[in-house]
Amino acid sequence: MKRIAGFFGLLSLFILVVRPASGQQIGKYVPIPAGSDADNAITEINGATDPAQKLALIDKFSSTLVQGDMAILADDLYVNYYLAQKNYEKAFEYGDKLFALDPDNFSNAMNMVRAASEKGDIDKLMAYGEKVPGILQRFKASTAPSGIEADNWERQKAATLESNKDNILYIQQAMFFGVSRTANAAKRAALLSHFAELFPDSPYANQALGVAATSYQEAQNLPKMLEVANGVLAKDPNNIGMLLLLSDYYSEKGEQLDKAEAWGKKAIALLGTATKPEGVTDEQWQQQVSLQKGLALSSLGQVNIQKKDNAQAVENFKAASPLLKAVDWSYGRNQYRLGFALLNLKRNAEAKDAFAQSASVNSAYKALAQAKLKTFDTAAAKKKS
Asked: Which CATH number characterizes residue 291's domain?
């Protein structure tokens, strides 16, 4: 059971990469009079192609033309400059300065998430991402500025949120994808659960909870694994990953076997009609479906063993074998289970072959299978003597 979590996590990461898009502003509005010195300076900065020249122009703008809220523009120019140069520490430095001046600057939040994502800094990725729900909530609740009618303001807000829809999705995806790569299973599980709390309506919320459940399993925190997995199924009864996870867990434990069997069969039925997600190649999709079907069949075989139906167990394990061949851990376990089902049927020669197949791959079952193979050699030696 221990290593299956990593497999489920990988399956959840076949996602489409979204890039930041342009969107209407959320945060303080800083007017720049047309034809003003500030307008001309920013035009010159934006037109500069040489990095050193661009930075010199930004420095000049910051030191000579910045007054009041104009500092927001200067910090934003620095953030975008250092982000383009992949100097993430300087980008963070100016991003934090910008947040001090304009805490609800959505564009800055997106830039900071991007910088943390590109740098691979999970702690900063979560810290900056955590700011986004509050920024959006306060913007949605904001009252009309002076001189704008309430109805018109509501329409403007709706248009602004619509224009930033892809940017919001980018932030959610960057957080989900980045956190899912966290090496420490317990930390990964906690961060993904927190992500789902921050963005409950995100298209990645359920995926995050699914990977969180398998990460809790990997961390051997089984109560949290069951809590999260059952919570996902309560909201999404057709979540194949959680059906497989719970079927696998209970079949291995020998508990709630009827439920484990029903979940495994339901997963197989759903896989038969599942639609390939956008951004996943045909080859990736076929691999995913095959592996998941193999896991379901292996769980059903284990249920059969627990219910003393060894003949049916052999059928399910044999059907699962070719589907799991690409994953050493799952294949090694399946063949080890098959060996026991065959032993129970007194089909010793076939059982020995199954244990040999289990021992042929690197998994937690390799040593166990080798130990079983020795018993066959010992029994054969005793017969000769």
From this structure: 1.25.40.10
